Amino acid sequence: MKATYVLIALCVLAFILEQAAPDAVYPQVTLSPINLLAAPWTIITSMFGHADLEHILFNMLALFMFGSVLENRVGTGKFLLIYFVSGILGSVGFMLFSSPFSTALGASGAIYGIIGALVLLEPNLTVYFYFVPLPMYMVGPIYALIELFYMGSADSIAHSAHLLGFFGGLALAIREGKAGWPPEPPMEMWKALAIPIALSLVVAIGFGAYYLSDQLNQKILGCINAESVGAARACFLDLSKEYKNSPQQQGYVCGAYGEFFADGACKGV
User: Fold this and answer.
1) In a shared domain, residues 77 and 143
2) How many domains does the chain have?
3) Which of 249, 255, 242, 258 is nearest to 214 (CA)?
4) Helix 215-224 and helix 247-260: axis angle, to 10°?
5) pLDDT band at 243, cuts 50/70/90?
């Protein structure tokens, strides 16, 4: 069975479990940068979680369309390497441009990596972009430009993750796509999986340690992990008062508060 179909099945299974037991499953499939040292596996598992039905439908359609083509072109081992490494780089892109208290989930970064790889490896593949047939070498850059255009917009989409995933896939496909190079041998499965796992641990430990090296982040994490919602809210508001003479730090606390509570109570404390 193709790895593409296995990945789709795992994403669908994760989504079903999210709906059945959200409190138990969401924390295991959601990337929370501030919690990376406690849950480093979420660098990988967040690629299988999805926020809602529309999110998973569009991602699985794209994975089915593009994943099968790439897997046929490079083999299962290299396909999995491109998929997972691009997804990890997508998480890096998300963390570089987002608050450490924000969260993310979805296979989009990995799928954009597939698209990036196909730009080089199957440039003449015909794709219907809004019903207009275009070659892959045009469609891929159009996708990337759209993501670049919407960077920084308040639409709850991790455009930076899509972009870095795209360029990750592009970079991983460069040698494979060079004319005149001898064909690469099939990649052994253990290597295809071991490399992303090792990379994910490096990323998780690096970013997690960096975030928690800041004392204020440690205090905010204590509020997040409070025993109840009410205790967490009170902790945030007390912390905001503690930093009332430092507008920048108070704003940082209230920004973190806003990731979890929509009542705006932290403003002007």
Assistant:
1) yes
2) 2
3) 249
4) 30
5) confident
Residue 226 neighbours by CB distance under 10 Å: 14
Which residues on neighbouring strands pair with residue 104, listed in sequence order?
31
166 contact partners, CB below 8 Å, separation of at least 6: 86, 112, 113, 115, 116, 140, 143, 144, 147
Residue 155 neighbours by CB distance under 10 Å: 8
Q: Which residues pair with 240 in a beta bridge?
A: none
Q: Model's pTM, two decimal places?
A: 0.90
Q: Torsion angle of alpha carbons 122, 127, 132, 138, nearest 10°?
A: -40
Q: Are 97 and 153 in contact (CB under 8 A)?
A: no
Q: CA torsion angle for 200, 168, 144, 127 (degrees, to 10)?
A: -110
pLDDT confidence band for 181 (50 / 70 / 90) = low
Q: Which residue type does 74 have?
A: V
The two three-digit tokens of residue 261, written as one number? 């509570």
Domain annotation covers residue 42? yes
Range of the domain at 226: 215-260
Helix, strand, coil percent content, the chain, rounded in steps of 5: 70, 5, 30
| Residue 61 near residue 73 (C-beta atoms within 8 A) | no
Q: Are strands 126-129 and 132-135 parallel, antiparallel or unpaired?
A: antiparallel
Query: Are residue 131 and residue 172 in the same domain, yes or no?
Result: yes
> Do 167 and 120 reside in the same domain of the chain?
yes
Give the distance from CA 192 to its chain's centroid.
Answer: 19
- Residues 87 and 26 placed together within one structural domain of the fold: yes
Work out the pLDDT band at 261, boundaries 50, 70, 90: confident
Task: Calculate mean pLDDT across residues 141-153.
Answer: 87
Helix (H, G, I), strand (E, B) or coil at 111: helix
